[in-house]
Amino acid sequence: MKYFATILCMAIAFCTNGQNPLSGIGQWRSHFDNHSFHQVVKGDAIYAASPYQIFRLQGDKSYSIDKSNGLSDIGIQQIAWDQNEQQLVVIYNSSNIDIVKDEQVFNLKSIELSTLYPDRRINAFHIYNQWGFAATNFGIVVIDLIQHEIKETWFPNNNQQSTKTYDLVIARDSLFALTNNGLWAAAIGLSNPSIGKWGPILTYQNQSLKNITQSKGQIYVGNESALFQYPNTSPIYQNVNAIISSIDTSINQLIVGIRYPTQKGQLVQINHNSASIIIDSNILSYPKQTLVNGNEYWIADSIKGLLYKNNTSFAWRDISGLKATVKGTGAINENIFLAPYGNTSNGFAKLAESGWQHIINDGGAPIPMLGNAAASNVDDVYWFTNNNSFVRIVNNKVEIIRPNNLVGDFKQLQIDPTNTLWAIQDQQGLVKYSNGNWTNIAIPTGFSKNGLDRFVLNNQGQAWIIAPNRTGIYLYQSNTFFSNEIWKQLGTNSNNGNLPSTNVTSVANDLKGTVWVGTDNGIGIFNCGDIASAPCNAYLPIVNNNGFNGYLFQKETVNCISVDGANRKWIGTNNGAWLLSEDGLTIINHFTKVNSPLPSDTIVQILIQPKSGEVFINTNNQMVSYRGTATAGNEFQNTIQIFPNPVSSNFNGNIAIRGLIDNAIVKITDLSGKLLYQTNALGGQALWNVRNIDGYKLASGIYLVFVRDLTGDEHAVGKIVIADGY
User: Fold this and answer.
1) What is the C-alpha separation between 251 and 542, in angstroms, rounded?
2) Is the pLDDT higher at 547 or at 333?
3) Which of 188, 443, 628, 692 could be stapled to 175 by a disulfide with Cβ–Cβ 3.0 to 4.6 Å?
């Protein structure tokens, strides 16, 4: 059982457009793709389900329910409202089940974890009285929705054998089940519950039925092209040019969703043997479920989103957030986060304090698919790659730039401290743009060029390029900082690179100029000077893992490396996300999909917002973020920000003291000057848990904050109020 209070507390904050506000320190928030919806139901509000989130809609306000604030899984297959118990049942593709009631989430993993049946998928779920009936690929599971437990399992056949069950309905004191062996029925008692002897209904043999529903005791069954009123064999509706994607009933209506091969859809109302179009194919694409609520229609469309219609108008409900999965390489600075959609959609998304903004066109002209992003810290100029061109956005105007006529797509981008744009061009080498001029820096003859993809610039102007075809690192040194311009290739030889593997998978530059290189066999750390006059070899740190010494992340693939404001290292692997100490020798956190809201353990990119310390973790299956404890340190100590402040005497979290100079010393005293607590900032942020040095919680009162740097030259003073009523 898990408490769901955070969702209820955030209901007011998630207003108008469903934006997910910045979370508290140590908390998570999700950044899921919200363009697709497959179900909508009515309970104490309207609930709409996407594959990753559930949205609770009341009027023009909405808020999201997902793994980051209470649910136990992602991959939502179906939702259902239990009117008797006033609770929401959530069915996942994994066959995991959540029951959300008031401030609690009850998790039922019995079906998911069962070893009795190899295929345990839940195909449909229906509620009758206090019972939930799950139609699965092995039979029908009965769930007690009061006790939140599995009651028993039924097999719709005469031999008690596992049977794939597509859907079911209860009507006329019988349970009708659609199976891979046709339609079966048995008398049912709902008080205990109990099931009688099963019998096959031969009326619809060889009709490939997959849907069944009922209205006022009348049963309807359907396949992909026809709808039948049981027990008649002539269809009351048929469309051989389309696929029936949904069958829904309301008080007086039978509504069929239609999908055409051209990604156009319709909503059709059936009256006896006549059909009338409610919503035509110019609007819908793939209607998956329709909810009729009085004179309102809610339609879940798996391609376009959530459509609302009443007697006079219709509109797509703006749920906000991302409109596609982020498959490009993002970029972040102090003000914005750019998330290109890659090959999943045109354009990109931009996250600022106001929330996500979806940008797909420029004055009506579509922005192309974008692969990689870079954002300047100096001006509001955004750069993206689009195959063999750049897309530059200045003052919301889009420019397409092709700086050369060479063969090869542009890949990763980086903007250096001089506001010079650098890029890697496949099959060619480096390209840079400065003061209106483009320069090509070719890969030397003899170096493999096909497959150039990623690189990073270090503090000395050296470009560390991941060599293609598992051949180590290409290291380019300009003559800006050193006297000689030179290229080198680094491998596993102890006198020429000392890499743990030539299959380099990631590279990052930390705050002190050290270059961290990730491979498929761990991490190598470089501190190199002039490579024209001295060798450049990796240091391979040795760590203790369960009593055994080994190299850092040995035998692990390091997909990405990022550095927070305290120079600590965030490592993304196929086994989750890791936070390491500055030197990499201590594991501070290890997040996986089991112990955190991560949607997958395969991490593809980690980006850190310098001012807030928020860590954006993009996986191969959606993106989430974690509010970290470190922020970027200020160059000079000015005013400090303290949040939350004031706090209640019952406050149990951390108070963040932000805007600090790097590694500042922070002291907390009472009004008499007695020292109560002392710590060092993590980058530009220090945390205080409202306790003294001995761990005792402090009483209500006013407390002083004193900040200075290690030399004592930079200092600031603040105060914290602890009192009842906040």
Assistant:
1) 69
2) 333
3) 188
